[in-house]
Amino acid sequence: MFFLTYLRRELRRRMRQAIFIALGLAIGIGLVITVMGASSGVKAAQAKVLRALYGIGTDVTVTTKPKPPSGRPTTGQQNVGGPGGGAGAGVCINGKCYSSGTIDTLLSADHGALSAATAAEIARLHGVSAAAGGLVLTDNRIVLPSGSNSQLQPPTSVSVDGTDISHPKLGPLSDGKLTSGRTFAAADANADVAVVDANYATANKLTVGSTVTVAKTKFKIIGIATQPEASSPPAVYIPLARAQALATNPATGKSMKNMVNTVYVTAASAADIGAVQREIEHLLPQATVTSSSDLASEITGSAASAAKLAGALGKWLAVLVLIAAFAVASLLTMAAVARRVPEFGTLKALGWRSSRIVSQVLGESVSTGIIGGLAGVGLGFAGVAIIDKIAPKLSATVPSAGGSGGLQTQIAGGGAGPVGSGPSAAASHATIAVPMSASVTAGAIVLAVLLAIAGGLLAGSFGGWRAARLRPAAALARVA
């Protein structure tokens, strides 16, 4: 009881010094919390990008490079009609030529084919929680000139995802939120039903109950989903079994029945991701095994720059400020002990042991540190709030799943090239805006309290060490 009374009296008597020490610690701790909040905001922004590319729960993706068509040219020329693409003009796609009608092909050209059993093999590996196959496809549609319409209409290209509906928590659709309708059910495995992206539905005036054509097959829309702002989602999701039946493998020109071109894998824990990646690489030497850390290294733009800035410059700045705050607190505490030599000498003469005086000095310093820590938490919240208000959206340039889908055309009398329009005809990289939302976590608050106590203990230790060295006779000699 006397300890607390004496402590309170000394803090009140030296309030100006206590406030100065607490303020120094508060600034250092507040900066640490602000940097941690900004860093967590940047990491969350990057996580949104990665989650949008992967899907919820996906830690690793497995793909292979597409093989060139065997025994037939990638492009060719058919002189069916006159030059310029007039009536009767021919179009060659991946070596196969057409002279009339509508060409509607569902191709797997961006990735090579894998056996559907590959997902089951990966799921049996140690450290793998679940694995699901999928098909990343492109539906290419060209309407050739006819007698009533002699003009070649611009071809269209729509991204399609074959979704394994038995694993709803893996793959691109797992990150979507339904705005209307429903998602896939087990009974839809072989049904001609589809879930479409909200942006694609709006652009094409589609609603639940409408139909969308994929590879000349009409799919009834059962749901409309919206994806996170950071994503570049497929336009149409259809059951994996139907995608396998309709898709064509450009390497062989045959159906992709019982095949996939992407395997989504989730590890049992974050610590297992590296081991899982190595196991898959050993199982499938020719495959490309990509983890979230691999994709994070490919992200460029202000999001990546901000992550490096917060992780490097911000961290060291916070450390330097903390060191300075601790040093100032220690020096001020030692100076205060020097001014209290007569007081401590008198206490020793009255029978106080050195350990009791040291504990008294430590108690005062730790109390000051805790006050500074609480003030630092408040400053940290204020700093994070300011960052939230003034921070612009971050930009992230990420590998895009879009492209022409490998569709190569040759129009009679014209040149060859990839055909595409719409979302899937984007460049190989896409730049997206990512909102940054800094936040103070419970871990940051706990760290602030621990730093405050550590700062108080450090300052009190130096002060207590000096107080313990005082001799009663020398101290009493300085009493006026």
Name the poorly predicted regions.
72-89, 400-428
Structural class: alpha+beta
Q: Largest beta sheet, briefly?
A: 11 strands, mixed
Task: Give the integer mean of the pLDDT values.
Answer: 75
Tally of structural domains: 2
Counting DSSP H or I runs of 4 or more residues, the number of helices is: 12
Report the principal-axis shape: elongated
Give the fraction of residues assigned to helices.
Answer: 40-55%
Walk me through the structure.
The chain is built from 12 helices and 21 strands. It has helices at residues 2-13, 15-54, 117-123, 198-203, 240-246, 273-283, 292-298, 302-339, 341-349, 354-390, 442-468, 472-476; strands at residues 60-63, 91-93, 96-98, 102-107, 114-115, 128-143, 156-163, 177-181, 193-197, 211-214, 217-226, 236-239, 248-249, 254-255, 259-260, 262-267, 288-291, 394-399, 408-411, 416-418, 429-434. The protein has 2 domains: 2-45 and 304-393 and 437-476, no CATH class; 65-286 and 413-431, no CATH class. The chain starts with a helix and ends with a helix. Strands 1, 4, 6, 7, 8, 9, 10, 11, 12, 16 and 17 form an 11-stranded mixed β-sheet that branches. The protein is an alpha+beta fold.
